[in-house]
Write a structure and sequence with these properties.
The protein has three helices and 23 strands. The protein is of the alpha+beta class. The strands form seven sheets. It has a five-stranded mixed sheet.
């Protein structure tokens, strides 16, 4: 279910007539967001190690987890902000970061931060995960399959996941970034809910920047077409994939293309009047540029796929933490 935001009064102040947590200017953290990144808002929020600049962004936490929350402003050295948070999740203390304690019940808990000087807001879509101990091959009746218990090359990115976003009918269309919804990233093994998904914040941030770059080239498109994102190990094997370490299994990969006309296939990005592998190459070049010059650390894979009889060309992107190209 979507949990209604409760307002809490911790530092005696009102924000637009609603009691909220207001952090005074003198108590702001000194840690800056990445200096090379232009902010979408006049400030940035750090949640669990991720700097969020977009007006809305999905983040995750385990039940009861204490997650550090900090912020940084580009307009003032020490901004005043209002925070609307679920009841009993955020506690005032004199020094940053401030601990956000995730609710014990899995679900979606919006956390909204308003910059008082500009009125701009950043809304964190906090998904509290459903834990899984990997006992068996399914979670609440949903077939997941088996994750490799030994991480590839010993890398943390390949550790078996601790939990999943539980997707129910009332949150399936929830926004997870300014131009993307949760539904776009679901595994295609079923149309029924509830189901479970992994979705990593850096992937969403990368896709937003790629979309902005595509738009800057003059392509009038509201979002990127996500052909495939999260896959359970069960579904990944069922469609014939033999790799047991696919980044799709870990929630930080997506197969994408540009589809402004809504025909379900890649658009002609090169302007040559045809849709060919060259259009995937062009999109991959845009992705590579964002990975190199974007606001975050988007180190990972880029794969180029030409057209096939049943589909058009597309590009695989991921943020696995090391460079891969194919």
């Amino acid at each position: 279910m979507i949990h209604r935001v409760a307002h809490i009064l911790i530092w005696a102040s009102l924000c637009f007539g609603t009691a909220v947590l207001t952090i005074p200017a003198w108590a702001q953290p000194a840690t800056p967001a990445p200096a090379e990144a232009p902010l979408d808002a006049s400030f940035a929020v750090e949640f669990n190690g991720h700097w969020i600049q977009q007006p809305i962004m999905a983040v995750t936490a385990m039940p009861g987890e204490a997650v550090p929350l900090s912020m940084e402003s580009r307009t003032t050295a020490a901004p005043e902000v209002c925070i609307e948070a679920p009841a009993d999740t955020l506690t005032w203390q004199s020094e940053a970061p401030w601990p956000f304690v995730a609710p014990e019940e899995p679900g979606l808990y919006p956390l909204r931060i308003r910059h008082m000087a500009t009125g701009q807001t950043i809304q964190l879509q906090v998904f509290v995960l459903t834990p899984w101990d990997h006992d068996g091959r399914s979670l609440d009746g949903y077939r997941v399959g088996r994750y490799q218990q030994e991480p590839r090359r010993g890398l943390e990115a390949y550790e078996p996941p601790e939990g999943f976003i539980r997707v129910t009918e009332d949150i399936v269309t929830a926004p997870v970034a300014p131009h993307f919804t949760l539904q776009q990233f679901l595994s295609k093994q079923t149309n029924a809910t509830p189901e479970f998904i992994l979705l990593q914040t850096p992937l969403l941030q990368l896709l937003e920047e790629v979309l902005a770059a595509v738009r800057n080239e003059g392509h009038n498109v509201e979002t990127l077409h996500v052909m495939s994102a999260y896959r359970t190990p069960f579904y990944n094997a069922s469609i014939g994939n033999t790799t047991v370490y696919s980044r799709h299994l870990y929630g930080d990969a997506a197969d994408i293309f540009v589809d402004a006309n809504g025909n379900g296939r890649m658009d002609d990005l090169t302007g040559d009047g045809r849709v060919t592998r060259a259009d995937a190459v062009h999109l991959a070049e845009i992705v590579a540029s964002v990975k190199e010059n974007g606001s975050g650390d988007y180190t990972g894979g880029i794969g180029i796929y030409g057209p096939a009889p049943h589909r058009g060309p597309f590009v695989h992107v991921d943020v696995r933490g090391y460079r891969a190209r194919w």
